[in-house]
């Protein structure tokens, strides 16, 4: 808890939720992205349409789902369709404006690893794998990535590229033939990173209140570039914090009630 | 035409050692009861196919039923790792597990190709990722009409598909609703199929987003109330998130896992007894 009465994780969720514009169609990953997307829907973006890969379109969960296919997601959805339909007719067909992803590891060109740490055949850590992420990263018009910043997560070289950001940087992504334009922003518990317009290298463009450049650099496994026009993220508003906490309290209560 | 038969008989007749089997159900309607019957009958050398292995395959892998896993996301949703799956991949326990991994989009299209009796499916994906380097069943293909470079993935044609649904009627037609994921494609892609259901009814009522699997497309239908527990059956019972959390420490430890399987799966007669058995130990909260 910072001196201002909110945690770094809360700041991260609020900052990520602000990236979601009202009215967009958003393909939501489970965990932190789902929390931020539902915060956005409950505050400034009531008309955004949340899609989960289990097949729910226009999901309106009252509590945060533990899994990607909780009944809560189907209950008040605009439609529930099959998994091939979600990936083919929605994502591949270009009907998703924003893909909202988490990650285990990310590199300086916003490529994502959720497969293994170490060698593929003899992994140090076997992670869950791809899920929907590769095609979300490929085909959503833009991608928002959200993860906590640490040297283990922000690495110079990924053990495995599960989902493509900007590949080797520059115009490398363009040559892959994907319709989506790639990650537009990475939100962390320290601040906000955006790809450099030319090199596509992730650059620190914003710091959350209380975070420092030094700490952000220390939490990054490569030499993190810092924008000349570094901004400070606006602190969470009272309403944002209240809605976020109520959402989490409802979720906790629902889980305990089982 | 589907026969309405007991689950033990259905599994004994339809699942053979060495088969490729797809137990599908995307978080919802996961066929746990059928999986436990496979474990109890000590089926082995199975190729397990499933988009999200979930606890159901963690249990089957740990119990030694699997030779190979074809999948796209292997975690305990919202909780963390599947420890039996990881132990098999990382340490080869209880036996080495060959893996073939895809993305969800790849798996979904592979089932569609299988259900359509086509040799492969085409999608826009995988390019630039490391998946084609480690998975032989991903290959580039050029569109003969436009020249666009795409990716091809071979059809999935499991020997057996197993799914759970809410209802069957007396002719063996099956109704499922809510999130129905990939189950229809899995059933149509497979050579044989088993469906477990919550109950048999005289007539189906209209439901939002309902899918009907006609009896003529199925082989066996078995009635197993609560057969998807600890996942859920929409309009019957909710997902027991507490069980998913309680699984983490059970799955972490080899001895603890083996003892759990012995007490609650191998040592019981059927799924109803399994539920009584875990309830007696306080593992069921709802």
Instruction: List the helices and strands of chain B in order.
Output: EHEHEHEEEHEHEHEEEEHEEEHHH
Q: Low-confidence parts of chain B, pLDDT < 50 over ≥5 residues?
A: none
**Biggest β-sheet of chain A: count, sense, barrel?**
10 strands, mixed
Kindly report the name of the CATH homologous superfamily of chain A. Glutaconate Coenzyme A-transferase
Overall spatial form of chain B: globular
The fold-level CATH name of chain A is Glutaconate Coenzyme A-transferase
Oligomer class: heterodimer
Structural class of chain A: alpha/beta
Quick one: overall form of chain A?
globular
Mean pLDDT of chain B equals: 96
Gap from first CA to last CA of chain B: 36 Å
Percent of residues in helices of chain A? 25-40%
Question: How many E-type strands of chain B?
Answer: 15
Order of helices and strands of chain A: HEHEEHEHEEEEEHEEEEHEH
Instruction: Identify the strand order in the major beta sheet of chain A.
Output: 4-3-2-1-5-10-11-12-13-14
Helical residue percent of chain B? 25-40%
**Rg from alpha-carbon coordinates of chain B:** 19 Å
Write up this protein.
- The complex is a heterodimer of chains A (258) and B (286).
- Chain A has one domain (8-257): Glutaconate Coenzyme A-transferase.
- Helices cover 27% and strands 22% of the residues of chain A.
- Chain A has helices at residues 8-18, 32-42, 71-75, 83-92, 133-139, 213-218, 238-257; strands at 25-28, 49-52, 56-57, 79-80, 98-101, 105-106, 112-113, 116-118, 123-126, 142-146, 183-187, 191-195, 202-207, 225-232.
- In chain A, helix 1 (8-18) crosses helix 2.
- The longest helix of chain A has 20 residues, at 238-257.
- Chain A is globular, with a radius of gyration of 18 Å.
- By secondary structure, chain B is of the alpha/beta class.
- Chain B has a single domain, classed as Glutaconate Coenzyme A-transferase, CATH 3.40.1080.10.
- In chain B, 33% of the residues lie in helices and 23% in strands.
- Chain B contains 10 helices and 15 strands.
- Chain B has helices at residues 7-14, 32-40, 54-62, 83-91, 104-115, 131-134, 183-189, 241-252, 254-266, 271-280; strands at 3-4, 20-23, 46-49, 66-71, 75-76, 80-81, 98-101, 120-123, 139-142, 149-154, 160-168, 174-176, 192-200, 211-213, 220-223.
- In chain B, strands 1, 2, 3, 4, 7, 11, 12, 13, 14 and 15 form a 10-stranded mixed sheet that branches. A 3-stranded antiparallel sheet of chain B has the order 8-10-9, covered by helices on one side. In chain B, strands 5-6 form a two-stranded antiparallel sheet.
- In chain B, strand 5 (75-76) and strand 6 (80-81) form a beta hairpin.
- In chain B, helix 8 packs across helix 9 (254-266).
- Classes of the chains: A alpha/beta (258), B alpha/beta (286).
- At the A-B interface, helix 3, strand 4, helix 4, strand 9 and helix 5 of A face helix 4, helix 5 and helix 8 of B.
